[in-house]
Structure prediction request, 138 residues.
Amino acid sequence: MRMMLAMILQFLLVHAAPTGFADQHFSELLDKNPKGLVYVWTPHMEESAKEVAALAQAQLGYPVTVLVDPQAEPRVLAEVAQKYKLPAEYLRPALARQLYDGERQFPVTVFYLHRKVRLRIPGLQGPELKETAQLLLR
Prediction:
């Protein structure tokens, strides 16, 4: 039964996946919100997935956009999404070039303020993520 459910989720992720979050979407986000953060996670790292689940519950006081590694393996993504009961909007592939500074490392947190990217920090999670956001986005 569990295997069947995983296969169905994988099929849905591959065939009914939301469109990627491209440069145009990022520009629209910056125009709509003068400050906030984008968290790009990967289902291939357990800590990254746990952070996404925590962000889903957090009330941070500014917009948080959660996106997924565009290279994520659909089967793994489906399993992690099911395990942590992640909302569909957290499964949108991060395609916008401005989210990356050359090398793609995950997770990566992108802070924006006054409609401009201010800082990209790979590997930031947990209390450090929230503390850094409070300092940068006040």
Q: What stands out?
A: The beta strands are 35-41, 64-68, 108-113, 116-122. The helical segments are 2-15, 23-32, 46-57, 74-84, 126-136. The longest strand covers residues 35-41. The mean pLDDT is 85.
